[in-house]
């Protein structure tokens, strides 16, 4: 998780520092969007491996998050080269799907059983914060 957070802040800082340089901005933009996928997967990894270790879907969710993250990163690279239309729509769907995956796979009741009410609060608040970031993502475009 910590490595993913540092990578996100580093890539975002570099992107905003070199926004005037077209080539650097393009490369750093891909890095910045890739960091979002990594942060979402990195946020779920400790929860899935520690809190959901006894749940049959814990490992499944962790593996699925990392697969989706790497698919999202690959998409970022391809979309930068090919200029895919509606790229933002695909990215938002993938970001949101990854962010709320545990709710739709494990379920709130099972999740609460493994992490307690405090864990549910963290899941909801974290999910709302990530979801709130969508507003800034859309406004940027």
TrEMBL record:
Is Zinc tagged as a keyword? yes
Q: What stretches pass through the bilayer?
A: 6-28, 35-53, 59-80, 92-110, 122-139
Name where it's found.
Answer: Membrane
Which residues does the annotation say bind Zn(2+)?
A: 16
Q: Which residues form the signal peptide?
A: none
Q: Does the keyword Hydrolase apply?
A: no
**Listed InterPro entries:** AdipoR/HlyIII-related (IPR004254)
What's a Gene Ontology MF term here?
Answer: metal ion binding
Task: Tell me how this protein sits in the membrane.
Answer: Multi-pass membrane protein
Domain of life where this protein originates = Eukaryota
Q: What Pfam families does its record include?
A: HlyIII
GO terms for cellular component: membrane
Q: Taking the first listed entry, what is the main subcellular location of this protein, grouped into a coarse class?
A: membrane
Q: Which UniProt keywords apply?
A: Membrane, Metal-binding, Transmembrane, Transmembrane helix, Zinc
Which PANTHER family does this entry report, sorted A to Z?
Answer: ADIPOR/PROGESTIN RECEPTOR-RELATED (PTHR20855), LD03007P (PTHR20855:SF3)
Protein's name in the database:
Uncharacterized protein
Protein's organism: Paramoeba aestuarina
């Amino acid at each position: 998780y910590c490595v993913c957070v540092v990578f996100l802040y580093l890539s975002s800082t570099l992107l905003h520092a070199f926004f005037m340089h077209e080539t650097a901005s393009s490369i750093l933009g891909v890095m910045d969007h890739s960091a979002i996928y990594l942060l979402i997967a990195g946020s779920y990894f400790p929860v899935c491996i520690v809190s959901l270790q006894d749940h049959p879907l814990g490992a499944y969710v962790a593996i699925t998050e990392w697969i989706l993250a790497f698919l999202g990163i690959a998409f970022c690279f391809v979309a930068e080269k090919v200029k895919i239309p509606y790229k933002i729509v695909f990215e938002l769907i993938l970001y949101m799907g990854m962010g709320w995956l545990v709710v739709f796979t494990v379920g709130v009741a099972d999740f609460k059983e493994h992490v307690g009410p405090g864990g549910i609060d963290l899941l909801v608040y974290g999910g709302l914060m990530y979801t709130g970031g969508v507003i800034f993502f859309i406004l940027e475009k």
